[in-house]
Amino acid sequence: MVMALSTLSSSFLLSLLLFSATHAFDPCSSSSSPSADSELSVFHIYGKCSPFSTPKRESWVDTVINMATKDPERVTYLSSLVSRKATSVPIASGQQAMNIGNYVVRVKIGTPGQVMFMVIDTSNDAAWVPCSGCSGCSNTVFTPNTSSTFGSMDCKMPECAQVRGMSCPTADSSPCLFNQTYGGDSSFSATLSQDSLSLATDVVPNFAFGCINAVSGGSVPPQGLLGLGRGSMSLLSQTQSLYSGVFSYCFPSFKSYYFSGSLKLGPVGQPKSIRTTPLLRNPHRPSLYYVNLTGISVGKVLVPVAPELLAFDPNTGAGTIIDSGTVITRFVQPVYTAIRDEFRKQINAPISSLGAFDTCFKTTYEAEKPAVTLHFTGMDLTLPTENTLIHSSAGSLTCLAMAAAPNNVNTVLNVIANLQQQNLRVLFDVPNSRLGIARELCN
Ligand SMILES: *[C@@H]1O[C@H](CO)[C@@H](O)[C@H](O)[C@H]1NC(C)=O
Ligand SMILES: *[C@@H]1O[C@H](CO)[C@@H](O)[C@H](O)[C@H]1NC(C)=O
Ligand SMILES: *[C@@H]1O[C@H](CO)[C@@H](O)[C@H](O)[C@H]1NC(C)=O
């Protein structure tokens, strides 16, 4: 049986009513964009304001649940990243999961600017867009030949060797072509290119990205990708002088198809008082944002877990990352089991399962629900109710919105995901090696 799930604490219908009462204007028009220079609206990829939203045959909550069913694939991908020894990992990062993220921002590329909606992904350094003339791409494409600032980069540029992971056969002035595989049997070929990238009112001249020419063995997702990792060719690295390696986001609530959040780039306008925890750097995987999760409490009980299941180990890749592309938080199996068992004990209700969720109970027991607190070095995060539970749209079942990492991979990675980050300002301060979290109603 398939049941629709909705996020907790207000029904979808109520969200819609509130929405129409408070937002009479079109939520997707640029007039509703944040006004600061370096601030962009962030949309759910299948939400109303995204060009990738599908005609609504299913409820929004079902869309969210379907997105969550792709998590195991992404967690498997992230786990494969950490368990492999990296050489250079910029744009051509080898295996690339199809499921590349859940949020899009609106940017402009070229002169005059062409509007592109690009997926933001904190666990990726890549930037690429489907380009005109591409065989196998959808029709959401960038047209280089109408941009006066476009240029393709050639083989003898040092960036080319970084992207290809090897030098060109002949170090000449032919275009820097590279192939990238993803999802096992699909690949695309692209030309390393550069053009102006406009982010809100900021312009990044000569931004390097992959311009996709051909796709084989499947299809690339129609949107471009704007990785927010901190590796060598990432947006952060390329905008060092503009943004100094600092950004924050607030992801919109999962309550509504219409909501948007924001991405703030650069140190200006970031929250002044915010609790922080050190960002840890794995030299083998510089793009991933590791933090030190030291324990988890359910209610007042610190869940018993062996410290080595949470410990950061750059050699094995073990530890905890903050990720923008996974829907529900995944813990390694023994950690999840310990959290779940304590949660079940405190809720003291008959437990059933639903889809990916194995700890569901009748909504009438909700008053008993314990809070879940994530303890990081120097910072505790007690999750708001909507970041902990989801419930069926029929209203009868509530589920703990977390799960174990897929058991088909020998994963050592805990992933703090979107649902647990909604309506929080998450600050990535790379120069000061810290990650901050503050409550914020961002939609
Ligand atoms: C630009 O390229 C597209 C596709 O490659 C082509 O159809 C179009 O005519 C070109 N436009 C100009 C101005 O060259
Ligand atoms: C990319 O793949 C195509 C088709 O398989 C091949 O012809 C081409 O040589 C490859 N290019 C690179 C740079 O590996
Ligand atoms: C993480 O926190 C634990 C417990 O406080 C500490 O022992 C460990 O050294 C920390 N790890 C890192 C990498 O900071």
UniProtKB/TrEMBL annotation:
Q: What is the similarity comment for this entry?
A: Belongs to the peptidase A1 family.
Q: Which organism is it from?
A: Nelumbo nucifera (Sacred lotus)
Give the record's keywords alphabetically.
Answer: Aspartyl protease, Disulfide bond, Glycoprotein, Hydrolase, Protease, Signal
What residues does the Peptidase A1 domain cover? 103-438
In the UniProt entry, which residues are flagged as the active site? 121, 323
GO molecular function terms here?
aspartic-type endopeptidase activity
Q: What is this protein called?
A: Aspartyl protease AED3-like
Question: Pfam families in the record, alphabetically?
Answer: TAXi_C, TAXi_N
Q: Which gene encodes it?
A: LOC104608591
Question: A GO biological process this protein is involved in?
Answer: proteolysis
What are the boundaries of the signal sequence? 1-24
